[in-house]
Automatic annotation (TrEMBL):
Pfam families: Pirin, Pirin_C_2. The keyword Iron applies. It comes from Polaribacter glomeratus. Fe cation binds at H58, H60, H102, E104. PANTHER family: QUERCETIN 2,3-DIOXYGENASE (PTHR43212:SF3). Its cofactor is Fe cation. Keywords: Iron, Metal-binding. Binds 1 Fe cation per subunit. Residues 149-232 form the Quercetin 2,3-dioxygenase C-terminal cupin domain. Belongs to the pirin family. Residues 10-120 form the Pirin N-terminal domain. This is Pirin family protein. GO terms for molecular function: metal ion binding.
Amino acid sequence: MKKILHKSTTRGFANHGWLKSNHTFSFANYQNLERMNFGMLRVLNDDVVQPNMGFGTHPHRNMEIISIPISGALSHKDNMNNQRAIEVGEVQVMSAGTGLTHSEFNHSKTDAVNFLQLWIIPQAENVTPHYNQKMFDKAGRKNKFQVLVSPVDKLVEGSLPMHQQGYISMIDLDPEFETEYQLKNGAYFFLIDGEVSIADQILEKRDAIGIIETEKVVITAKTKSKLLIIDVPIN
């Protein structure tokens, strides 16, 4: 087993006023040659968008883009005629493929939006762009792994498709609950909230650990916790 620990305080940080963003991997003005990616996981941004602010229309190409709101709601609009809000409990997947444009905006007058944005390198380039969004039942992740995103050619029932042999899952853990996660590739564990032990390493809120070269890891919750698992090919 090989492990790489990323404490929350070691992430890159950008404060644009309307946007505060923590970058797990190199992104924009944060460039760290030792933090370029974890296998096919290229970007993991922890963004807070202030009220009545947002990202203007901008392009993407040949990337699988996953957005997961933590608090608040983020309005989405793209050139494929999709226009709706992404709310807590929902997951959005955009396969950019040959190219798309979109914008994201916080229409609340009072509340900031916190969401995670993941970029995953696709296994095939220049696919037809497409968009999916779904609300997931929180009961489906209480002390069990709820698969949110899976490969388009091996789609797990109830999950959203992406063009990569990866699996994105979430689990809500009760205090002292212990479970095992079976790795399919390499797995990157990002603790959204709480405190857990993963492979004998303690993680606190927004800490992360990447693990490769093992079949399974033991996860024990120290407190009530929410954990995101990004299981992706390493090469």
